[in-house]
């Protein structure tokens, strides 16, 4: 059934997949850009941990559709609110993992770095972050898989992506479309999971 | 009370316990000792069927444990382990009375028993409402012992119960156990790898290595007649000093046919003195005979005969006593 | 009109949607708990392959919720029932896993002491392992509940009602007030459920685990 659907619409499927990947990649990259520095911040300034994590936590708790909806009056429809929402979702995991990864760096190593005359920033860049990388990457992995799933709904607010196949299938009771969409999104999520797991394993060596 | 008849336990390809046979008499504290991995814990756990033998029989009160209901068997045997295993979500009182609740004792009886046991193990009654987390390691283990004694079992199994506490507390707990045992005379099977603990507590010691029994006897047997080189090496450090403690003057004396009168001898010892006590006694008597300080002073010479220092009788005797105190062989007559 | 005004004007409808939303959430979690807890506890007694379970769990959780909801339609049609089934399917696994893992992570020395004292397996499970695993089990139920509030929002797409309906209508009609009238209560509901869950977790943690160590 899936094959009967895919073959004629292969072009569409590929394009939707591409859109989906774009949304997720953009979201994860932005989340890292915002989340990692915040993670470093709360690692260095403990007192900020509770407010920042609570804030990110609240955002994480809000159901995806609701968050999309809240952003629409501000940002309109399309990619912008979708990517923004995904970024906001991913913040909790990335901030928490960054802080945890940094926390796990053995103090002797930091001491050695300081002893060698590295500035705070150099320590961070040359020592702490590289050592914290596996844990940070684990967070990125969780965020990515999560985002692939949520992005399936983003189509409803005009962002495109494989969700289109699911909704179209739902609307016209087209099983082929429905199943293709479901399988495609799941496959994408699993591939991302496995791929990033490999990278994580390679880094841990 | 407890009997092992050619018991063997195999885990996969490993013979953890190999043809082990020994007996524990009623009221006796029997110690299973040996290096780690020798099978002593596995042997212990076969008494209450936490481990079941592959071959041979384990008899408790004359009955093969495999023919008894394991749950009932365990309720009649006390069990104390190194990590204590107190239930963190229960108060001290609830921990102690766990088995009593299963035996359907009423609340008042349970409370009374808990108070009684707490006193026995040397803890204040207000500990009843505390939680394990609020107790120190030594206190937790005391509660562990109280819990094991709750249903008044006549057999108690102890697996390195004092291994997880620091040495000073451990000594205290060992002496407490000795005190409690003197009062209640339970049959105890005790596993340890600590030799001084074995000699302190054990009426009967079974030495194991690689799943087999190497020697089975009293502490004297081990010290004076080690069965083989393994046992000799195992107790080597404590052996010389141990022998000095164990052998009595009565064993080395010449039974006098013509008994000298005390007045004729400058020095005396008692027949029941251990050799060590005899030496100590002689040392102080000698010091007493020598009146002046010059007489009690001892010159210390090197090989060529020149004086390199000095000491006194008292100092030497004191140094030997100290050596004994730190050797780990206990002062209690073995 | 602002969304607050919309809320006030249509409060009857909104309360109805809220009720549907809560029904969906609580019923699905309730059924999941009734099924997953006994199964999860039973699994601790059988030599089940933990790694297989976590593998399956990973794959299952990667399937997007919207897809699970959508897949119900050809089988069960649209409406409340298929949504309920989808939500139950979704919340089963986190609760089951947490029961299993929670019991497995109880200190083995405590379980050994319990067995050595003569507690039978049933009592060991009920009086020792479950109370000690309770915080983890409660955490699992809490996660499932918060997750289901979110999925129940999506249930609107298969005609199950709930606050998601307002959001969908708002999108279709480009009516911001309606949109927010659906989204804001949903967000508040989710946060409220999270807080309720945190409180529940604390309540279910045995006192002995909460006291400060000496």
Question: What does the model show?
Answer:
- The complex is a heterotrimer of chains A (205), B (334) and C (214).
- Chain A contains eight helices and no strands.
- Chain A is mostly helical and 205 residues long.
- Chain A has a single domain, classed as MetI-like fold.
- The model of chain A has no long low-confidence stretch (mean pLDDT 87).
- Chain B is α/β, with parallel strands linked by helices.
- Chain B folds into two domains: 2-245, Rossmann fold (3-Layer(aba) Sandwich), CATH 3.40.50; 251-327, no CATH class.
- Chain B is 40% helix and 22% strand.
- In chain B, strand 4 and strand 5 form a beta hairpin.
- The two termini of chain B are 24 Å apart.
- Chain C has 214 residues and is mostly helical.
- Chain C has a single domain (3-206), classed as MetI-like fold, CATH 1.10.3720.
- Chain C is 83% helix and 0% strand.
- In chain C, helix 2 packs parallel to helix 5 (80-104) and helix 5 (80-104) packs antiparallel against helix 7.
- The model of chain C has no long low-confidence stretch (mean pLDDT 87).
- Classes of the chains: A mainly alpha (205), B alpha/beta (334), C mainly alpha (214).
- Chain A binds chain C through residues 57-58, 61-67, 69-70, 72-73, 145, 148-150, 152-153, 156-157, 163, 166-167, 169-170, 173, 175, 178-179, 181-182, 185-186, 189-190, 193, and chain C through 58-59, 62-67, 70-71, 73-74, 146, 149-151, 153-154, 157-158, 163-164, 167-168, 170-171, 176, 179-180, 182-184, 186-187, 190-191, 194.
Query: Main sheet of chain B: which strands, in order across?
Result: 6-7-8-3-9-10
Sequence of secondary-structure elements of chain A: HHHHHHHH
Kindly name the structural category of chain A. mainly alpha
CATH class of the largest domain in chain B: Alpha Beta
Quickly give the CATH architecture of chain A. Answer: Orthogonal Bundle
Q: What is the CATH third-level topology name of chain A?
A: MetI-like fold
CATH topology of the largest domain in chain B: Rossmann fold
Please write the CATH class name of chain A. Mainly Alpha
Q: C-alpha Rg of chain B, in Å? A: 25 Å
Terminal residue distance of chain B = 24 Å
Seen as an oligomer or otherwise, the chain set is: heterotrimer
Averaging pLDDT over every residue of chain B, what do you get?
83
Q: Round the Cα radius of gyration of chain A to an integer and report it.
A: 20 Å
Q: Give the termini distance of chain A in whole angstroms.
A: 44 Å
What's the total count of β strands of chain B?
Answer: 12
Share of residues in strands of chain A: under 5%
How many beta-strand elements of chain A?
0
